[in-house]
Write a structure and sequence with these properties.
4 helices; mainly beta
Amino acid sequence: SKTTLGDPLTSLVDINFDSTKAGQLSGLDSTLRISGNLTTKVILDHDTLQGTMKSPVLHLYNQFGHYALQNTNLGVSLSPQSSMINYQADDAHIDLEANFDLREEVDFISTWPTHILLHPDSLFALNGRRTLTASAVLQNDSLLHLLPWSVDTFSGLNLNAAWKEPDSLLSIEMHAGKLSAMGWAMDTVYANVEVAGQTSKSKASLDGLRFGTTTFGDLSLSFQTPGDTITSSIVLQRDTSNILGLHTRIHASGTTYQIFPDSLAVLGNYYRVDPNNPIQIANQQILFRDFTLGHDDMHLSLTGDSSSINATFDHVNLTRLNALLFP
């Protein structure tokens, strides 16, 4: 290693990892080990940080598998006026640019997942000028070998994001190809989030969804937030037939959510849902208070919570499931 004191401060470090136990140092998986050579350069000039990291090959091991980072190059530049991150490897790349210092906004950005649906307007400060664009590509399943479940097929993933505070806009889009794991398989996966001021829209689709030898079809989900109410839709379609259609309204009050199913259709049959007894989610518990639904002479009633549910069934015809399980 070599460090030059002065203005700016420069540090050059060559590191050789030999099955180094990195999990305990990083606070990640305690079984994580690293092998390989790594060259880093850091330049610190007042409030500006620049850094590079290069490695011809870096091996990561944990209790689940092994991942080899080939021809890795990471460049980082952070200052009060701008931020830039560029990561390149044989199987992945990441690009991020912003007109602000990421070091000052990490906590704020981490709140985006919860605020997108519940408080979309909190993503934009009044008269704010911040902007951010990011893209990421993962070309194969090599990185997924470190996960605790086996991935049989994975044909790549693309992610794009843009945040424009002056226009009160946020968009995130993800697309993945064929994916199969733990018996489940799908042809494509797509997700999109759009926030404009106080309104947010989210949608996702899983095409060609199947489990084992059973084909379910195409599953689509959508959420929209006008004010403090979330409207949602879940539709499962096979060929031209609707297998499942569920449309709900979700009212949020603090950490309590009330789910009002407006309509439910299963295998072409429409079910009555009691509009006065919603499903509640509070304190990490799902609560049912005389929740009922019915169709013709069929009747279902649920009372209880996540730990204990009392269910009453009348005239339930399970033979209709044959159309789904054995098409």
